[in-house]
Design a protein that fits this description.
Length: about 450
């Protein structure tokens, strides 16, 4: 279901008006958001005014762009003109509104897309569940007793609930891949420095990336090309791909159904090997230390002045990060450098790496735990146990929703060499065509167009 292409085609041909599409999206937000809590601010006036302008362009015979009339939302750490960027915290609520849109929002709007909402997140993107003391918990559209994942949970849930065609999130240690997996949508963490971060509130400046959530792989590819200002590579021949299935760490505490799905993928005729990555526990620890140190350093002035405005769990983690010795941070950066070189060598032998994005379906809100080495541990900290180490690679990583009709969603992550996002899209399209991968949309919302 290539929703974005369908909407744009219908709007540009005047089969539907942009005003109709945007009104449907806003009505879906009014209907479904009270159930899941993914939207923080609805941009109704701006959205309807933009839609009317698009309709005027169509009436004049002008092309509004490849995303004409397509509604989208953004995680509340992207600057939206005339809106205060809170990054999920009351600490920033009194700051002046943004003077302009973030660069990526401008790119999307220039292509005809229409922002309709800002979306909930873990405070300052520090968590994997979108349990926000200030703005509430974002619940999973497939079972509101469960988490949507985080820290971009509002972004994933909004697409899964059918409230908008796509959304933007950020991914430092798994904040796109985890909620995409738990909400059953496609997500992409692009290679580091692929998409501009101007106008995006930072968490960890050397690991932050931003990317989209969509309901199909073709939609994901379309949005990525616009965000990154890249031309479409066209169809790629992937018959000779070599895929490595990550073992060891990436199979511990993983539900058997997820492992079976990986086995199914490896049996579709593409050459597949088994691979155990060296020192992956150390790599995950380095990722923890880098984000904690960089986040803590960024927030130190606020922590000294207004510590009580933070969510206590976020505050304590930032304080711990700020107290880390410089030598510890530098050692973690050395491990990052080694790991990137190590992964680069691996891509001399393989084209793609495949692993679980999460080891289980979404945890219950009243039991916020996941298994780590067979023991219950904090979901807020550990839902990203399989995404976090791979973040240090700097590689593009696709979160792929498994086709699980009648079951709770769960996804896989597919890793490619930097610059090879086009191979991820082609492989995702193959799995979508074979029925192995499929987004799970809980409500029809705008999907009736």
């Amino acid at each position: 279901m290539d929703l974005i292409k369908k909407i744009s085609k219908n709007v540009r041909s005047a089969t539907y008006s942009a005003t109709q599409i945007i009104s449907d999206s806003l009505n879906a937000i009014d209907k479904y958001n009270p159930l899941i809590g993914s939207v923080t601010i609805t941009l109704k006036d701006r959205a309807l005014a933009t839609a009317q302008h698009i309709d005027q362009l169509v009436a004049q015979g002008k092309d509004p762009g490849p995303l004409a009339g397509v509604p989208f939302g953004v995680k509340d750490l992207f600057d939206v003109k005339n809106i205060t960027t809170t990054a999920g915290s009351v600490l920033l609520a009194d700051h002046a509104p943004a003077l302009k849109d973030a660069t990526v929002i401008t790119r999307l709007c220039n292509a005809g897309a229409v922002p309709v909402a800002t979306l909930n997140m873990d405070e300052f993107a520090y968590g994997f569940v979108t349990d926000n003391t200030h703005y509430g918990i974002t619940k999973n559209p497939h079972d509101t007793r469960r988490f949507a994942g985080g820290s971009s949970g509002g972004s994933a849930a909004a697409v899964a609930a059918g409230m908008m065609a796509f959304s933007l999130g950020s991914d430092t240690n798994g904040s796109i891949r985890v909620p995409a997996s738990l909400c059953g949508v496609w997500g992409l963490r692009p290679a580091y420095n692929t998409i501009p971060l101007q106008g995006v509130y930072p968490f960890s400046e050397t690991l932050d990336t931003i990317g989209p959530f969509c309901s199909s792989i073709h939609d994901l590819k379309c949005i990525f090309n616009i965000l990154s200002d890249r031309k479409d590579h066209g169809k790629q021949d992937i018959s000779s791909l070599k895929i490595a299935r990550l073992k060891g760490w990436f199979e511990r505490d993983v539900d058997q159904e997820i492992l079976n799905a990986i086995t199914e993928i490896t049996s579709i005729g593409i050459e597949t090997y088994n691979l155990t990555l060296d020192h992956i526990e150390t790599v995950r620890a380095a990722s923890f230390l880098i984000t904690a140190s960089e986040g803590g350093t960024l927030h130190l002035p606020y922590l000294r002045k207004e510590p009580l405005k933070y969510d206590p769990a976020t505050r304590d983690r930032f304080i711990a990060g700020a107290l880390l010795p410089v030598s510890t941070y530098l050692q973690a950066k050395k491990i990052e450098k080694w790991f990137r070189h190590y992964i680069h060598k691996i891509f001399g032998d393989y084209d793609l790496l495949i692993a679980p994005a999460t080891g289980c379906t979404a945890p219950f809100i009243n039991d916020p735990t996941v298994l780590v080495d067979g023991k219950k541990s904090s979901a807020r900290v550990n839902l990203g146990i399989y995404t976090q180490p791979l973040s240090l690679s700097g590689c593009p990583i696709l979160s792929l929703p498994l086709n699980r009709t009648g079951k709770l969603p769960v996804g896989l992550q597919i890793v490619a060499k930097p610059g090879n996002e086009h191979i991820l899209f082609e492989f995702g399209a193959l799995l979508e065509a074979k029925g192995i991968a499929k987004a799970s949309i809980q409500q029809q919302g705008i999907y009736n167009v």
